[in-house]
Write a structure and sequence with these properties.
single chain; 333 residues; mainly alpha; 59% helix
Length: 333
């Protein structure tokens, strides 16, 4: 009995696919990525109120409210014996914040899955060297994004202390879940995305668009632009968050400059290699010589010499050959 299970057609050895096969592959990868995010969201929804005491893992709600609870007691709201309370003005506020927290946790928990799906879709179209660079860049980008979110989580308590302390000791701030979690998630995403900017410069350098020397010359303007960017992008505009983000971006920019300059030196050194020393999938960077002494200049061709007709060949019988008779006939015409 034939199997009813649909089998995926075998790919050619070079990995080429038609347009419809690309679309089917994209649909397959997107389905797995969305399913992973959905399962991670379900885990985050349960984790919001359920922790694991055996490994000292607090609930997701406690982790997200920890920066707010670090604010001095005189400036935050305290109700019903809870040291740090959020004011929910609508019936849907609690559900909204729980869903938002679960989705954010689902995206982070499923990060290895959807990053692999992205890599599995793009990887076959790359050469081995490009595949190695792309895999490295994806891994570094994930680490930088996660590191930026952790850095923002550590900075948020200090920023809240500054922002909530402007009202003085007689003012108590009652934050709603929407405002607090919107501020929390926004600043964490801003930090995570901002830390990708130096990596983008390195990628442009590896692609041959930017040189390390140009990045070094533009260091002053880049530092000024990063300070302005931090002042505009950070929600709340507290000086602590802006200063930490600007300083981090400047440090990563300097690291990008050094990596780019090292790559340019290695590239210049590789340009002196012979073609036999290069890998099979690396194009030769040897430029053709423009020196006239090194070029084989062709000598001019002289005028053709006249062709002298040869004497007719005599056969032993005394006659001429057929070729000579045809030639005489052509001359006669």
């Amino acid at each position: 009995m034939p199997s009813l299970r649909r089998r995926r057609p075998a790919r050619p050895a070079d990995g080429s696919m038609t347009l419809m096969e690309h679309l089917y592959e994209l649909r397959h990868r997107l389905f797995i990525a969305v399913l992973a995010v959905f399962l991670g969201t379900v885990v985050g929804f349960v984790w919001y109120t359920v922790g694991i005491p055996a490994i000292h893992l607090p609930t997701l709600g406690d982790i997200l409210t920890e920066p707010y609870c670090a604010v001095p007691a005189g400036t935050r709201l305290e109700l019903g014996g809870v040291s740090c309370s959020l004011l929910a003005p609508t019936p849907f506020s609690a559900l909204h914040i729980r869903l938002s927290s679960a989705i954010m946790a689902g995206v982070l928990l499923s990060c290895p899955v959807w990053l692999y799906q992205l890599w599995a879709f793009v990887g076959p179209a790359l050469y081995s060297k490009e595949r190695k660079f792309a895999l490295s860049f994806v891994g570094i980008a994930a680490v930088l994004f996660a590191g930026g979110m952790v850095l923002a989580y550590l900075v948020i308590p200090e920023g809240l202390k500054v922002l909530l302390g402007f009202g003085g000791p007689g003012v108590v701030t009652a934050l709603t879940p929407e405002s607090y979690y919107g501020f929390l998630i926004g600043i964490m995403v801003i930090f995570g995305v901002s830390l990708e900017l130096p990596l983008l410069l390195v990628m442009l350098n590896f692609a041959g668009v930017l040189k390390g020397v140009k990045l070094a010359k533009a260091r002053r303007y880049a530092f000024f632009g990063m300070v302005v960017f931090a002042a505009i992008a950070v929600p709340g505009n507290d000086p602590v968050s802006m200063g930490v983000l600007a300083l981090t971006l400047c440090i990563l920019y300097e690291a990008a400059v050094q990596v780019s300059k090292a790559h340019d030196r290695r590239k210049a050194k590789r340009a002196g290699q012979t073609i036999a020393e290069l890998p099979d999938d690396v194009a030769s960077s040897l430029e053709p010589s423009t020196d006239a002494a090194d070029l084989d200049v062709p000598s001019p061709v002289g005028a053709p010499e006249p062709v002298i007709p040869s004497a007719p060949v005599q056969h032993p019988s005394g006659g001429t050959s057929a070729a000579d008779r045809w030639s005489d006939a052509g001359d006669a015409t």
